[in-house]
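the three lines:
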Amino acid sequence: MTDALSMLAGGFGHVFSGGAAFHALWATLIGIVIGALPGLTATMGVALLTTLTFGLGSDVAMLVLVCVYVGAIYGGSRSAILLNIPGTPASAASTLDGFPLARQGLAGRAMGISTAGSWLGTLFGALMLALFAPSFGEFALQFGSYEMAWVALFGIVIAGSLSGGDPLKGYIAGFLGLFVATIGQEANHAYARFAYGNADLAGGLGLLPVLVGVFGVAEVLSAMRGPAVRAVSSKIDSVIPRIRDVTTYWRTILRSGALGTFIGAMPGLGEDIAAWTSYAAAKRASAEREKFGKGSIEGLMAAETGESACVPGAIIPVLTLAVPGSAPAAVLMAAMMIHGLNPGPMLAITAPEFIYQIVAMLIVADVVKLFYGLVLVRPLLWILLIPRERLMPVVFVLCTVGAFAITSRLFDIWVMLGAGLVGFVLRELRFPMAPLVLGIVLGDLLDKNLLRGLVLSGGDITPFFTRPISMVLCALTLAAALWSVPGVGALLRRRQAPMPK
Amino acid sequence: MPGNRRVTEARCRDARGMQMREGSKDMLRRHILLATAAGLAAPATLRAQGTWRPERPVTIIVPWAAGGSTDQMARIVAAELEGPLGQRVVVVNQPGASGSIGTRNAMEAARDGLTWAAGAAVDVGCYKVLGLLDTQLSDWHLFFAVANVNILVANPQSGFRDFGAALEALKSRGQGIGVATAGVSSAGHNMMEALRAATQLQYRHATYDGGNPAMIATVSGETPLGAVLLVEAAEMIRARRLIPLAVQAENPVTLAAQGNVPAIEIPSVRRWIPGIPAPLNYFGIWAPKGVPQNVVATMTQLWTSTIANSQRLKDYANARAALFTPLHGQQAHDEAWKMVRQTAWLYFDGGKARVSPDTLGIQRL
Amino acid sequence: MSEAEAASPFAGERAPASPRADLVTAAVLFALGVAIVQQSLAMPRFVEQSGTGLTAPGIVPGFYGVMIAALSLLLGLRAIRRGGWSAGGAARRGAGEGRRLLLAAALGVLYAGVLVGRVPFWLASALFVFAFTAAFEWNRGPERRARRILEAALIGLGTGLAVTLVFEKLFLLRLP
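prediction for all of em together
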């Protein structure tokens, strides 16, 4: 313990010896801007800055990349709260309660909650990284194909609970999302499903263009549909985060922090799933469950803490196993390799101080993020004062660039447009969009891991139930399914109600 | 580190040895002549046509996800080219459909030299065979940076101490032994198919989302064996979490010493299966033919001056057990062609080819 | 979809869709589910390559198709129980709403689907923002209309140039 503390002190000393404050300031701001623009993701931000910081030396480059990563995940919530458009996939869960809060004139408070939750989340994750990195990494190795298939199934079961009132439509939206994820080449025989000879479809529909479509384009359409002069909520409330919001929900923060870090450490699961899981868990445990989806402080806090705790979590397996825990972490790892830092199991032996330097960088980035969180609230609130006739077309342009930015393909703009129109119709028919997006995220996971598990076992399904972690996950999934039975019961009762008896 | 340098030299000798045995002496002489001719001709061409000075950022399309081995190579090359080109070189990731989407976009972009594709040359050479993309290796100006070798690794608990033991097991009860690869027609999968063609072994093919996840599956014991690129497995081999069984190369490959880990010599698969084809897997960047001549001339000159002397690429290759191979032009094509010949016929024999390689002028290796 | 719900400030609190709308949706989704199942069955099975046929590409999407069809059947039954047959169609929404929606969608499709990729990006974006703002502010009455249109043009031009500059110079994207 004292050893870890002195190593951490050394890490801070190392970070601050290289003009850290200056680099952290600009890099975190770039990260927040990238995150807040719909379509530009943390992955893209880290990849872009990898090339741009190539000549700056590995210490500065790592600090910049960590700051961009931390900033982008946080920045995505700005647009989620203010515009109902998640800036990155990680912030999709933040729209559920963040936007209703903004519509109630509490945008400032919502951003304060987001800042506090995000700050504590990353701090929590960074401390976990410092204390338990090696054992966490080894535990992540226990999650093979069988376990990942259960994780995906578990996510699908809880998708219904994210549906806000109508589980049946939630599940339908979830399965539509799962279906969208199957489009394109599958993993075992490289057969292009539902592509009909189209080379672009063979590559599949990207999560990001669909996300920008169903949230961004659909939001622009529904904003413009309303009566012509509807004043956008123009009240500017308190911009300082409230201590009470933190102290009241300390349980939620700790739970979300632990869940976020843990999910981050799992290869293949990223910030988006961390946010969804924290949100769903908070909803399950909450005493005020009915507020979720209508502006629950607890819900927003859970999503924000979860996604931000995921960042250090995703770096844990990078440092201990050279296995990225999320897509941005994969790019960060590549940058480490390019800079000759050789992350992996040898790192603890060859350069243990590097782990603590990364922890110090995360904490520096986190503090800078808090600083921006406090000073940027007021300027961001001005966005709410812009009339929608002028704001929405600009948002639409940014959505278009965002959909295009990731892979520079016109195809992605068309996917965004199509997903936006279909998404708008589905939203009008009261299908929730959250399970749809979750379905796309989990579909890939379930498809590949389920089939791989069957290949590995030679068609035998017993490993799905007999491996120790599989058993636990199976029990969890069944429990979650049973939990939603009252929902099914209510559904049946509603169906029978009009029938005369 | 003196130990480190010794190993580097040993490995360079290996690489030269490999090249020498692959081509005849005649070939080698032609390489030297070509190289000399290019060196002499380059300044004249540049004077005649003017150096290429891109007025907008140059894009390198990596048709795989960010963070993979192609992506790492492309980012180093991009950074090395930026200075002498006097322009930003941006890496864009366009993954999907076995890399054919990104490559197609590079093919369809304006032929102004501002759009390049990166990847493994063998993929470009085989897209047409697989029916994924209407292009051939000769349609591109090729510039290679590194060559990777495939390796078969084993989990330490799997009981396979050397390649011979694994080979016996795969031959006798292969249907029950899982082998992790980065997916269909990945380098590791092609290595297993080559082994199968040579020895009639069987294996249970488990596909993962890239070389890194496949390697991790072997480390965690989900599969007893894994067939990946040596770059992807190097760190785990050094940490003794993976047993290196054999590399698909003509000679043994030495993993350079690092820290207190001594150098590790990995035997060649030819020790057990003499005569099995073991061409090198070249990674680099390329532009479609039809780009202006001064673009090609400038890039050729940069390749012989900047890239061939890039310390960063050399260090990267050395640490990750790749071979530093700054080839370009016809020589690059001829070197990569060997693997195209081998792989195209593997696809054909495996029933995956849409057209016979014969019709495309690809002869069996 | 009544007039009352449009006034509700929260998307999540809007009244549920009408039983008639649910019934039509269920029919469409059921057809989609069946089509997915049919297409999945038609996919190659790769039995020789895999030995077991367990990796057939159609299994997973086929399962999703079955689930979509089954769940939409439930949705349809629920809608019928709630009076989906008898209701006199969905309540008509205000004509202005439909017109605004159509205008926004048409402009969006024209911009992202047609203009981008054919016209330089800054010009396409400037035209789109200008047309959008000018069209939606047209009905505010004739006074100061010229001024509003001038402002719209300036916002459009500003957006087009700013977005192009920021993304091409700072984020090094090559815009269409």
